[in-house]
Amino acid sequence: MKKFKTSFFLVVITSSFCYADSYVSHSCYQPSIPYQFTSEYEVTNFNSEVDTYKACIEDFIDEQNDAIRNHRDAAEDAIDDWNSFASSI
Length: 89
Fold this sequence. Notes:
With 89 residues, the protein is mostly helical.
């Protein structure tokens, strides 16, 4: 019976985390690629915009990976709490 309770709890807690947050998208500005550059200034400006876009995407990815780690840690803590409780019954 304890095995069933533990398994059931794991399914419930894991499935609830799947719906904990809604879909999140980045808000980074993607620069437009010109058909042709007409000056060195345009090339420099475009390269700067590309670097800014890349940094924004990398920051977004880092934030999302941190959120994943936090959710995983919270799930593991909840599982540990349940297992501790279930083993004391």
